[in-house]
Specification:
Helix content: 10-25%
InterPro entries: YwqG-like_sf (IPR035948)
Organism: Desmospora activa DSM 45169
Protein name: DUF1963 domain-containing protein
Distance between the termini: 27 Å
Number of helices: 3
Largest sheet: 11 strands, mixed
Number of strands: 11
Structural class: mainly beta
Bound molecules: zinc ion
Length: 238
């Protein structure tokens, strides 16, 4: 099975966004403003983490042109608890996208906004785990018994597709959902663009990339229903 890790560059290094792109941080592109989610726990607007367009190989959302937006609370709420509403996954059909960047709700604390990193390429990696072994990644007992062997075949970075790198426990997912990717924000968890690699201001770069999900992994599950697509993000911390 293949997975896809984003090669990113910082928004500061490229011209301003003029069309739909896969990206991390900054402001979302195309999100209807009324769909910016609030935290189920503290009630504040969530922080925008990333957006990805549906793609037949790496990220199928069940309908061409759909875009998925990921949000999480950066205010110590229970992002590890799928019931708490401290994360949100918003999936928008192409016809419902709006033009341009979406401003955050007025009550959003701008200091919680993440720096923008834009995806310039998706780099394909192979995860050689055979199809018949796949179930072991989603079974608590089988995972516990085979963790080391399974982990050797899994890419432990930010990615779409592939198999999850569990850090504490296996998360089951409701029927109709599949594991669609995972999100980490250490500097080694992305493929870095030449601009980033060559940048002299290393502290600044790390400050940008190390935010979002620090010391943890966000697991993304999607139900690509034709009429009512849904998603779930669960974040575990080390
Ligand atoms: Zn919150």
């Amino acid at each position: 099975m293949f997975c896809y890790t984003p090669k990113v560059t910082l928004g500061d290094y490229v011209p301003k966004q003029t069309s739909l792109e896969d990206k991390f941080g900054g402001l979302p592109w195309g999100l209807p403003p009324e769909r910016w989610p609030l935290c189920g726990e503290c009630g504040e607007p969530l922080t925008f983490l990333a957006q990805f367009s549906s793609h037949p190989q790496r990220f199928s959302l069940g309908k061409e042109g759909r875009v998925l937006f990921l949000f999480s609370c950066q205010d110590d709420c229970s992002t590890f608890d799928r019931e708490a509403g401290a994360n949100a996954v918003v999936i928008v059909d192409r016809d419902d996208l709006v033009a341009g960047l979406t401003a955050a709700p007025p009550s959003f604390d701008e200091s919680l906004m993440l720096a923008e990193a834009r995806v310039v390429e998706w780099v394909q990696y192979e995860e050689p785990l055979p199809d018949e072994e796949k179930w072991k990644c989603y079974d608590r007992k089988a995972w516990a018994e085979n963790e080391q062997a399974l982990n050797r075949q899994i890419v432990h970075r930010t990615k779409l597709g592939g198999f999850p790198s569990w850090i504490h426990r296996v998360h089951s997912h409701p029927q109709g959902y599949f594991f669609a990717g995972q999100y980490l924000t250490g500097p080694d968890d992305f493929v870095q663009s030449e601009e980033i690699v060559n940048a002299t201001d290393e502290n600044n770069i790390l400050r940008y990339l190390l935010r979002g999900i620090e010391n943890g992994i966000g697991y993304l599950f999607i139900n690509p229903d034709a009429v009512e697509p849904k998603g779930e993000l669960i974040v575990d911390y080390y």
